[in-house]
Amino acid sequence: MKQPYESLTLAALMQQEEGFVIKADTRTEQFEQILSAYGFNEKEICDFVDFWTEKLSPGRGYVMYPQLTETVDTAMPITVEGAEPDSYYRI
């Protein structure tokens, strides 16, 4: 179901063919495994898990559709002020 704030253009850019079923009772472990496989370090994984634990309803499963960094950059460009980071990942 589309939320009122979602853009149809944005949705058209995002793939929804390959993803992960995230079960409520193993959410943290699944996030850690997935993010580790994508090359995120321990702090980045911890930040991601902390952020999404607050946002997602407890006891509810979800489907996660990771996106390539290039796709996310096209849909939602970012500007970095100051020193450019050596690298960054967005999923």
**If helices are DSSP runs of H or I spanning 4 or more residues, what is the number of helices?**
4
Distance between the termini: 21 Å
How do the helices and strands follow one another from N- to C-terminus? HEHHEH
Main beta-sheet annotation:
2 strands, antiparallel
Topology, number of strands: 2
**Share of β-strand residues:** 5-15%
Strand order of the largest sheet: 1-2
What is the approximate shape?
Answer: globular
Average of pLDDT: 87
Structural class: mainly alpha
Low-confidence stretches: none
The tally of domains stands at: 1
- Specify the helix fraction band: 40-55%
- Spatial extent as radius of gyration: 14 Å
Structural overview:
By secondary structure, the chain is mainly α. The protein has one domain (18-91). The protein has 4 helices and 2 strands, in the order H-E-H-H-E-H. A two-stranded antiparallel ribbon has the order 1-2. The radius of gyration is 14 Å and the shape is globular. It starts with 7 loop residues before the first helix and ends in a 16-residue tail after the last helix.
